[in-house]
Amino acid sequence: MANQPQTVLVVEDEASIASFVAAYLKNAGYAVRTTPSGQEALRLVDSEKPALVVLDLMLPDIDGVEVCKRIRQKGDLPVLMLTARDEDVDKIIGLEVGADDYMTKPFNPRELVARVKAILRRSGPDRDKRESKVIQHGRLSVDAGRREVKVGDQEIQLAPKEFDLLWELLDHRGLVLTRDQLLERVWGYTFAGDTRTVDVHVRQLRRKLEDASPIVTVWGVGYKVGPAREAAPA
Question: Does this model's pTM top 0.85?
Answer without folding.
Answer: no
